[in-house]
Amino acid sequence: MTDTAEPQAAQPPNEVYGIFAGPIDQAAVSRVGNAAAVTTNNRITHVHLAFQTAGGTVADGVALYNIFRSFPIPLTLYSIGSVQSAGVIAFLGAANRVSSSLATFMIHRTTSPAIGATSDRLEAMTQSVLKDDARTEAIFTASNLNLTKKQKETHRFADLWFTAEEAAKAGLIQSIKEFGPPKGVQLFFLGPT
């Protein structure tokens, strides 16, 4: 009787793949924070997260930006459809940012409804919007966002949209590549339920 060892399958890398699709709100911050805790406590070596959002509040976008920026393991965010408004703020927190060739991005100045506002409330609201614009611009600057003169002018007054190619030129992303989890990998979902 011969003693032959069975060849062992190669140990797959300890990487996880997930999808975030939904608004940028406090519930999203909570879900992403919980997922970060789970990945760091399970010896994960890299997180790949498909990201799709129409935006949300500046405060929650900044919170996600800070979570992504300080993520304790390598994190790659993939824009898979559109990342808009506060979603762009969050997206810029990841060190590795990738986009589908068909994805778009949109940034704009902070907005706030003036429903039922007195002149004093409008003044306070104006101060709040200006502060949110300032911190958004600080994130754009820290992320080396490079807008053309025409893009800056559009951004002052209207929604500014980017194709994947334009996003790469502006520094929103490092590369254009499709989100492609390996066959058989389990995906986790971070969207609202």
Question: What does this molecule look like?
Answer:
The chain is of the alpha/beta class. Helix content is 38%, strand content 22%. The chain is built from six helices and eight strands; from the N terminus they run E-H-E-H-E-H-E-E-H-H-E-H-E-E. The protein has helices at 26-40, 58-69, 86-91, 119-142, 149-157, 164-170, and strands at residues 15-21, 46-53, 75-84, 96-99, 104-107, 160-163, 175-176, 187-189. Strands 1, 2, 3, 4, 5, 6, 7 and 8 form an eight-stranded mixed beta sheet that branches. Strand 1 (15-21), helix 1 (26-40) and strand 2 (46-53) form a beta-alpha-beta unit. The chain starts with 14 loop residues before the first strand and ends with a strand.
Mean pLDDT: 91
Largest sheet report: 8 strands, mixed
Output the helix-strand order: EHEHEHEEHHEHEE
Task: Give the terminus-to-terminus CA distance.
Answer: 57 Å
Shape designation: globular
Note the beta-strand portion: 15-25%
Question: What count of helical segments does DSSP give?
Answer: 6
Radius of gyration: 20 Å
Which regions have little confidence, pLDDT < 50, spanning 5+ residues?
Answer: none
**Which bin fits the share of residues in helices?**
25-40%
The SS-based structural class is: alpha/beta
E-strand count:
8
Strand-helix topology:
Layout: E1 15-21, H1 26-40, E2 46-53, H2 58-69, E3 75-84, H3 86-91, E4 96-99, E5 104-107, H4 119-142, H5 149-157, E6 160-163, H6 164-170, E7 175-176, E8 187-189
Parallel strand pairs: 1-2, 1-8, 2-3, 3-4, 3-5, 4-7
Antiparallel strand pairs: 5-6
